[in-house]
Amino acid sequence: MDLSFFTMPIHPVGKSISKCMREDRDAFILADELGFREGYCGEHTTDLAEIITSTVAFMASLAYNTKTIRLGTGTVNLPNSHPARVAAEVAMLDHMLEGRFIFGISPGGLMSDAEVFGNLDRDRNAMFVECIDMVLDIWKGQAPYNLKGDFYEVTTAKTMMPEIGQGTIISPYQTPHPPIVGTVVAPFSKGVTAMAARGWEPLSANFLLPRWVKTHWPNYVEGCEQGGRTASPANWRIAKNICVHDDAATARRYARDPGSPYVLYYSQLLTKLKNGGRANLFKEDQNMPDDDVTLDYVMDRLVIHGEPDSVADQILAFREEVGDFGQLVYAGHDWSDIELSRKSMILMAEKVMPKVNDAIAAKTAAAQ
How far apart are CA 128 and CA 138, in angstroms? Predict the structure, then answer.
């Protein structure tokens, strides 16, 4: 099992934005130094807690400060963008990273973003599909493109000057395009099936209960069959909230006490999802009242914490529940205590993952 990194960083409102940005960048640079395989960050336009407004711009800032980690947009919210701009910026970033790039996409889930872009009452899923289709058509086509859909239009027919290069959008570094990953945030998601059928791979969100994460695998298998390929657990990424320390009490305090960045994260997220009518994501039983979905209820089920041996055991128990998967994606949070945040990532890479992989190898050998 590989270790990767994902952050939709929720910072305290009022904390210095420039300080938050520096700490978010430092987390990715540390992940690269520790050998994390991939790193993703989200984007939102209208949120004072989630302050990365462009995942492409943020990842571009890391292109020449990282060496081996594959960096991914996690995600470009396509209905809030124009396909020509997405195609051009993503291709540019792919060249900056010389192929160390993964194209993460989604319809976007923040309602205030949808409102500010005038999409609140529009079919954002249809916009999402049309936008990514046009991006792919731009990359495989030739200028002037002449693409027209229900929401977007792309052409440079009136202004092309091919002899000097004007009117053509650059193609990606990777051929035919960067690998595409979609974040999966719903139980029994049919989006997983549709993505897999098109050759894309899933990343299951860190705020889904294990029983709902488990539902993604059969849908992924179904989609791979539709696309004529074999589903491999190695391509399934699952994000988890994890806090590790040599001292279990310290890990619990940083994960669960008032002022904890993990508590901040879920207090914000729970408020957003409840107000958006999506508290069902946190429910073991879909018939339970929304009022029973408390912060403690959510954190008891979604945050792993402890010393390395305990965290390894909890990860292995999670794997037993949801099934085999190829990448454990460590969810990043605000660095309210820089030393503890760095310590957790270091122990995760150097102590926890070797124990997890030794246990998986031993179990595999015993089964043969």
Answer: 15
167 occurs within a structural domain? no
The domain of 257 spans 2-74+179-367
What's the pLDDT at 6? 97
Tokens of 230: 């074999």
Strand-pair partners of 31: none
Give the mean pLDDT of 325-351: 98
Spatial separation of the C-alpha atoms in residues 259 and 253, rounded to whole Å: 9
Cα–Cα distances in Å, from 212 out to 222, 279, 322, 323?
A: 17, 13, 9, 12
pTM score of the predicted model:
0.96
| Residue 297 included in any domain | yes
Torsion angle of C-alpha atoms 234, 237, 241, 247, degrees rounded to 10: 20
165 found inside a domain: no
Please write down the long-range contacts of 316-322, taking CB distance under 8 Å and 24 or more positions apart: 316/356, 316/359, 316/360, 318/210, 318/240, 319/1, 319/360, 321/210, 321/211, 321/214, 322/210, 322/213, 322/214, 322/217, 322/238
For 173-211, write each residue's pLDDT tens digit. Answer: 999 999 999 999 999 999 999 999 999 999 999 999 999
What is the tally of structural domains in the chain?
A: 1
Distance CA 278, CA 270 (A): 9
**Quick check: 326 pLDDT over 90?**
yes
In a domain, 63, yes or no: yes
Q: What CATH number is associated with residue 238?
A: 3.20.20.30
